[in-house]
Each structure stands twice: as structure tokens, then as C-alpha cells.
């Protein structure tokens, strides 16, 4: 038995680049390695924002108790009935991976539902394009998509300045041995 497992073979996230295609929705049942519980303020408004705005689908529901939503495999959210919901968004958030071609349309869909609850899209110093939304339950959600890596670009220079060999760059130390 090996101590190493290449988890990328089971990841639904495609390699970044032009023409990256999001995976099909996964409707199978599995033991969720991680998930988020969110207390909805109103089931209909919450399901609408999560599905029409953020691109998840309703996998199943138990009336008055919970709705299980999913985007891609391993991107599950449970809307679980709770006696109360916090007034302010929590200090923490969670992110869903996406592909670059989805960011603008998801930002527009969220903005159509809750115009004042969307920030972005914006490019980050770590080479992603992100859009942030606050759901009706006051949960902060970030859709993040990797941008194609340019070995000659600013991100590569940032990594090199930190002593990290950027992807696509020669991995030798240019003759500086021992």
C-alpha cells in the first residue's frame, strides 16, 4: 500500500487554459469528504440564489429540514433549517472552483438576484479570477477560477522572487551548485 494518492485524478476541476470545460453536474451519492451547512432564512429565496445565481442544483430535499445542493462532485452545500440566522456575514467564507469562462456569467446571475451582494469579478495576485457573493443566509461564497499561467508574466516573477520555481520554468538552479 502506498502513502501517496494522486487526488487530482478524482478532482472534477479541469486544468486551466483557453477552452477549459466545466464538468457535467454529478448526481451520484457519495460520502461527502467536506460540506457546508448553511441555515436559510427562507428556503425558496435561498434555493433560488444558490441554483440560479451560483450554478448549483438541488440534489434532493427533506421538506422543512434540509436541501442538499451540489455544483460539481465534492462541492456540496446543505441548507439546514435552524432556529435563527446571524445578521452579519460570518468572518469566514468558502470557495468553489470553476473555469474562467464561467466567472462573468455567474457574477451577472448573482447580481440579477442580489445586486448589492456581489463583488467582482476581479483578478487576484495568485493568478485566479474571483467573484464573491453573499447569499440570503449571509454566507460569503467565492467562485474562483485559475487563469492560464504565463511563465513570462508577473505571477511567474512573483513566484521567482519568493524562490519558487514557476510552472513551465526550467527547474535547474542555473549552474549555482553546492
Set out the fold topology.
Layout: E1 36-38, H1 43-53, E2 57-62, E3 66-70, E4 76-80, E5 93-98, H2 100-113, E6 118-123, E7 128-134, E8 140-146, H3 154-161
Word description of this protein:
By secondary structure, the protein is of the alpha/beta class. Helices cover 19% and strands 25% of the residues. The chain contains 3 helices and 8 strands. The strands form 2 sheets. It has a 4-stranded mixed sheet, with helices on one face. Strands 5-8-7-6 form a 4-stranded mixed sheet, with helices on one face. A hairpin with a 3-residue loop joins strand 2 and strand 3. It is globular, with a radius of gyration of 19 Å. It starts with 35 loop residues before the first strand and ends in a 17-residue tail after the last helix.
